[in-house]
């Protein structure tokens, strides 16, 4: 398990009361998770440290900018935030809206299209959409 204060320090973030509360919900038990702002907000409502939804959004953005979590966009209107920081693909269940890790050792990307002139590859996101049969 990781201490929330140490986790914030890794990203160079000041351990404010709200950041500590949200960091504890994200990484306090040592389990990698995928959250959206609304689900993290709901979880925070169950604690003594209540924060506004705007604070949750702002804090998640700060955590991303600090390199502590990564954003996974599943469509233009929905983002998840992943505490697992290595490159790995995801499964997205369209019926439940659940995002889960997929095995990275089973994914092969043989070739990418040629990048436009003046561009550098930042990262490749793989979200595999699933429908129950």
Question: What Rg do the Cα atoms give?
Answer: 16 Å
What spatial order of strands do you see in the largest sheet?
A: 1-3-2
- Intertermini distance: 37 Å
Tally of contiguous helical segments: 4
What is the averaged pLDDT score? 93
What can be said about the biggest beta sheet? 3 strands, antiparallel
Residue stretches low in confidence (pLDDT < 50, at least 5 long) are none
Could you state the CATH homologous superfamily? Answer: Winged helix-like DNA-binding domain superfamily/Winged helix DNA-binding domain
State the CATH topology.
Arc Repressor Mutant, subunit A
What is the name of the CATH class? Mainly Alpha
Strand content: 15-25%
Rough outline: globular
Element-level helix/strand string: HHEHHEEEEE
Which class do the helix and strand fractions yield?
Answer: alpha+beta
Produce a short descriptive summary:
The chain is α+β, with helices and mostly antiparallel strands and 133 residues long.
Helix and strand arrangement:
Layout: H1 4-10, H2 17-27, E1 34-35, H3 37-45, H4 53-65, E2 70-75, E3 78-82, E4 90-93, E5 98-101, E6 127-130
Explained architecture:
This protein has 133 residues and is of the alpha+beta class. It has a single domain (4-130), classed as Winged helix-like DNA-binding domain superfamily/Winged helix DNA-binding domain (Arc Repressor Mutant, subunit A), CATH 1.10.10.10. The protein is 30% helix and 19% strand. It has four helices and six strands; from the N terminus they run ααβααβββββ. It has helices spanning 4-10, 17-27, 37-45, 53-65, and strands at 34-35, 70-75, 78-82, 90-93, 98-101, 127-130. The strands form two sheets. The protein has a three-stranded antiparallel β-sheet. The protein has a three-stranded mixed β-sheet with strand order 5-4-6, with no helix packed on it. A hairpin with a 4-residue loop joins β4 and β5 (98-101). α1 packs across α2.
């Amino acid at each position: 398990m990781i201490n929330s204060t140490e986790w914030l320090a890794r990203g160079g973030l000041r351990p404010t009361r709200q950041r500590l509360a949200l960091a504890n919900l994200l990484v306090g038990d040592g389990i990698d998770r995928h959250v959206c702002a609304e689900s993290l907000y709901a979880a925070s409502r169950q604690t003594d440290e209540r924060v506004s939804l705007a604070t949750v959004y702002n804090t998640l953005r700060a955590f991303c900018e600090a390199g502590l979590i990564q954003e996974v966009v599943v469509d233009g209107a929905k983002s998840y935030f992943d505490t697992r920081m290595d490159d790995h693909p995801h499964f997205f269940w369209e019926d439940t809206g659940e995002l889960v890790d997929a095995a990275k050792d089973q994914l092969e990307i043989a070739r990418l299209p040629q990048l436009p002139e003046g561009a550098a590859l930042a990262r490749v996101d793989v979200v595999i959409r699933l429908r129950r049969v």
